[in-house]
Amino acid sequence: MANGYRPEIIQRAFVDFIGARLHPFWSLTTPKLRLIARYTLSDDLIALRFETNRTFKQQTSEMMGGWQGGQYLDLRVCIERVYHQRSYSIVGLAHQPLWWLDDNTESHKANQRHTVTIAIKPQGLVSDYLTKQMPLASVVDTSLPLGQFTLEQTSIAAQNTSNDNKPTPLLFIAGGSGITPMLGLINQALSNGHQVTLLHYSRTVSSKLQHQWQQLSDAYPDFIYHLIHTEDPTTYLAGERYLSAEGLLSLNLPLVDTKIFACGSQALLAGLYKTVNEISVLQNIQLRDNIIVENFGNALTDFDGDGNQLLDNALQTESHTVYLRSRQRQFDSDTTLLVAAENAGIRLAYGCRQGICQLCRCNKVSGMVKNIQTGKVSGDGYESIQTCINIAMTDLVLDV
Questions:
Q1: What angle do CA 121, 125, 126 make, to 5 degrees?
Q2: Beta-carbon-side half-sphere exposure of residue 154 (alpha carbons within 13 Å)
Q3: pTM for the model
Q4: Contact predicate 364/383, CB 8 Å
Q5: What would the DSSP string read from start to end of 44-58?
Q6: What residues have CB less than 8 Å from 92, skipping those under 6 apart?
Q7: Residue 227 contacts residue 202 (beta carbons within 8 Å)
Q8: What's the rounded Cα separation, in Å, for the pair 176 and 180?
């Protein structure tokens, strides 16, 4: 009886295997990138521009708008016959030409639609190889654009508005190379009509980035930027070298209604949490839930009221019961689901432990969780979640 199944006479994987040996850039199933140019953005930031293969184009065309500002790619790079995987921020948007190039002709813009650019700080084995050693025309495997550090994922673009029906005001706080995921994100926010304020703390000065921000300031009256060179007191905000309550209040933003995107080192994030806690005490408001974080480092962290770093198992909340349906086991959780399971002697899949690699993702059957990076509380029904960055708000059933 016909059931609609049509077996492949020749497996696509086999075709890919043969095709890759004839032409490394060709694939039916694997997105690939070919290096075509490098650009210096600052003393410690290099942009790499890649041509995309047909599979990458087809699969990203199915995504909303190609990809969103703030997302990243996982590159799989072969160095001396060993494969390494690293994540790098995408510069700009799928439909937007590279802003640092002078050629803005229509033909040039059309060519850019088939390219993607990432930004890299040259440090470490893979980053040094990509920025200094990998020959032009080299081919690397890549993921599709990933990440939730976006307007769409946080529902800001379509849902959140302030009391006067204008789009939600946005504050972007970056430290050093933490500016890279914001390059496209800020352009997207301004295009959507948001009031945008940028604070960029850095030990170096980039003329290209300064030119970018000045161009946006000229084009959008609602864009205000402050470039804080940490070695130059004349650039300090409210006379403070690093972020402070006085500096944040001096921006005259409606902080209760402002979403704060932050990306940088653990020290920068600690300073941010300390600052908003001081303001919350002064004004009897809660600003922590307005923060959306993309953080660097090997461990997911949070911070106490004094800006001191807390480890995973200190992210404590009210205890709830988590039931693993497939394993028929349960445990009590008052911290992240991953850490709570480990504390109960139950091993769950994980990778980066900071919400990037997706290896810990599983399906929630019922119950509510809270994402500790975005502050978003889930619904009560079936959905996919990451155990390393979610805490239980009610009793849960996981399809694990």
A1: 65
A2: 29
A3: 0.69
A4: yes
A5: TEEEEEEEE-HHHHH
A6: 69, 98, 99, 117, 183, 184, 187
A7: yes
A8: 9
